[in-house]
Design a protein that fits this description.
The chain folds into two domains: about 10-130, Elongation Factor Tu (Ef-tu), domain 3; about 150-305, 3-Layer(aba) Sandwich (Rossmann fold), CATH 3.40.50.80. Helices cover about 15% and strands about 25% of the residues. It is built from five helices and 13 strands. The strands form two sheets. The chain has a seven-stranded antiparallel β-sheet. A six-stranded mixed β-sheet has the order 10-9-8-12-13-11, with helices on both faces. A hairpin with a 4-residue loop joins strand 5 and strand 6. Helix 4 packs parallel to helix 5 (about 280-290). The longest helix has 16 residues, at about 215-230. It is globular and about 55 Å long. The structure holds flavin-adenine dinucleotide (FAD). The site of flavin-adenine dinucleotide has 24 residues, from strand 4, strand 6, helix 2 and strand 13.
Length: about 325
Amino acid sequence: MTNTLPVAPWRLFAVEIRAVRRLSPSFVRVTFTGPDLDRFADNGYDQRIKLALPLPGERGVYLPQGPDWYAQWRALPEHRRNPIRTYTARAVRPHLHELDVDLVLHGDGGPASRWAQQVRPGDEIAIAGPDAGYEGDHGGREFRPPSTGCLLLAGDETAVPAISGICERLPLDARGRVLLEIPVAADVLPLVAPPGVEVTWLPRDGGQYGDRLIGAVADAARELLAATQPGEVGVPVAGLDPAAGQPIEDVDVDRAILWEVPDTPPSAPLYAWLAGEAGVIRTLRRHLVTDCALNRRTVAFMGYWRHNHPDPTP
Ligand SMILES: Cc1cc2nc3c(=O)[nH]c(=O)nc-3n(C[C@H](O)[C@H](O)[C@H](O)COP(=O)(O)OP(=O)(O)OC[C@H]3O[C@@H](n4cnc5c(N)ncnc54)[C@H](O)[C@@H]3O)c2cc1C
């Protein structure tokens, strides 16, 4: 009699770095390989994953094994706990046992960025990601637009991998705007999108986070809504939120994670997906819901990182 354990949605993958490619001043692409990567589910879109990184002064990672590895990892003393950070699976090639992750280089301030600056082929880490052997929804994909309406995808450099992955899998007749704020013009990367989706790169060039994105999102939302709605933008009309214009609760981004993703957004003229620095994303969401009267259940917003705060993963 065989005793097979049920397959869990996620699992740990032991991986080795196959290649490191500097894409631009701020992006490095790390290609991982590993014996089990043929089981890494190729879900596309904004599939998130977790990288377990080396402790200071070490090269590999030593994670507890088994289905409760995360609980065991949390119980470890801090000096033995490999830092874990969240990234996006940029490309998966199960037949080649390969996975690409694009990491933003933002200096020595965090374990992931520090690691990305010095990573070399042959280095080993561990990745938690979706197991193709599991047949249900793995979780970790947040792009769930309704089947009708325009799209507004906006984010900073940390959202470039997710937005690129989303755009690659949009139907050919998708319509909308993509707005990407990046550190400098040389960080513009190749991005494949359907013809009806206009992509705009917004180099910050030393400006503050959100300097370019906030105004651009406001303009794009106004234009997209004007093109699809017969009303004056800012005045609640059919398809927009009947509670629009009412104050929305503010999230203290220094204490709570900024994250709200409607499960089944209703049909609406516009679906927005926003990700990046939490304070900027909070401003964008407020603008879309309060000023543009967008139905809040059609705005997915995710604080991917917080300025001056390390990732709170324990
Ligand atoms: C679902 C999801 C998907 C993500 N996908 C990607 C991805 O594909 N590629 C990617 O590069 N990032 C991605 N991120 C963001 C990434 O997880 C954070 O930037 C993370 O904080 C980086 O870890 P770190 O160890 O470098 O810095 P931390 O230890 O977390 O932070 C140290 C310091 O660096 C600052 N910092 C962190 N990130 C940045 C940044 N990008 N620019 C400037 N300062 C920063 C913090 O404010 C803090 O002061 C994603 C986040 C989420 C939640």
